[in-house]
Amino acid sequence: MEIWIREQLISIVASSVLGIISGISYDILKIFYAMLGIGRDIVCEKKRRFDPRLIVVFMLDFVFCLLVTAAYAIITYAFSYGQFRWYMLVSATVGFAAYMATLGRITAFFTERIARLIRRGAKRLVIILFAPLKLTSRLIVKGASALYVSSVGKIIMKLREDKRRRYTEKAFDELHSLVRFE
User: Fold this and answer.
1) Which of the 8 DSSP states describes residue 2?
2) Cβ atoms within 10 Å, residue 174
3) Which spans in 37-152 are helix H?
4) Are the C-beta atoms of 74 and 2 separated by less than 8 Å?
5) Residues 6+ apart with CB under 8 A from 119
6) What is the pLDDT of residues 15-43, one digit of tens each?
7) Contact in structure between 94 and 14 (CB atoms under 8 Å)
8) How many CA atoms lie less than 13 Å away from 151 in the CB half-sphere?
9) Which of 86, 144, 152, 156 has its CA at 20 to 30 Å from residue 105's CA atom?
């Protein structure tokens, strides 16, 4: 089966774009790691103790590799009729390396800042989304409290007053029976 030069160039460009997209995706994954507080320090530690965060790193990196492999397989089937071509793998690797060597360094420099910015934005979004719920719950509590005080609270206060009055009358009667003035 012949492959024309034009088709080869298109498959090389598509593979390079796949490599660049893979680099962008991995930078997004690194920003996610930074948001979770998982940095290079846990991977590069020289201590011999197990850190459970390594499981998260392993699983996410494994899923990333599976997704990139699936994307590469789709590109291979789409542009070279399902036949493996070394130059496509090399061009995808070169695209990934080129991204990591250029824009990837800039993103790596700003990863913590971007993660902090996303965290702040998420906190503000949560505040904005839950502020009406908080206000509504406060109004419901105040309304229920006012309803309690104006209805059930009055009945309970009246019962307490009657109990105190009966207790006082009983105590007064006992005291009156014990002390007689003649």
Assistant:
1) -
2) 10
3) 40-44, 53-79, 86-101, 103-147
4) no
5) 35
6) 999 999 999 999 888 888 888 777 655 55
7) no
8) 6
9) 86
Q: Which residue has the tokens 């088709």?
A: 7
Q: Which helix (H) or strand (E) is 23 found in, with range?
A: helix 5-36
Structure tokens belonging to residue 76: 């291979």
The span from the first CA to the last CA of the chain, in angstroms, equals 133
CA 181 to chain centre: 82
Rg, the chain, Cα only: 36
- Rounded to the nearest integer, the mean pLDDT of the chain is 83
Measure the CA–CA gap between 104 and 27, rounded to whole angstroms. Answer: 7
Q: How many angstroms separate the CA atoms of 31 and 104, rounded?
A: 12
Taking CA atoms, 94 is separated from 11, 91, 160, in Å, by 13, 5, 84
Structure tokens at 80: 């070279």
Instruction: Please check whether residue 34 is in contact with residue 108, taking contact to mean a CB–CB distance below 8 angstroms.
Output: no
Which residue, 32, 41, 112, is CA-closest to 64? 32
Q: How far apart are CA 125 and CA 6, in angstroms?
A: 49
**Tokens of residue 114, six digits:** 């971007």
Task: Give yes or no for a contact between 120 and 41, defined as CB atoms under 8 angstroms apart.
Answer: no
